[in-house]
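With this grant's support, we have settled on a layout for protein records. One resulting record is reproduced below.
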Amino acid sequence: MPDKFGDKIRLQHAFDAIDTIMGYIRDADFDVFSQDQMLRDACLRQIQSIC
């Protein structure tokens, strides 16, 4: 049975989520990332949207 979304759309969605994450962490080093709960939550949300 064909999927509701095409593979191309799913891949584009994943790439968009990755681009968003990269924008969030562009200027953050590990210390900033590990101490910023909101940043970690935002990145996790984007990762969840891919899965």
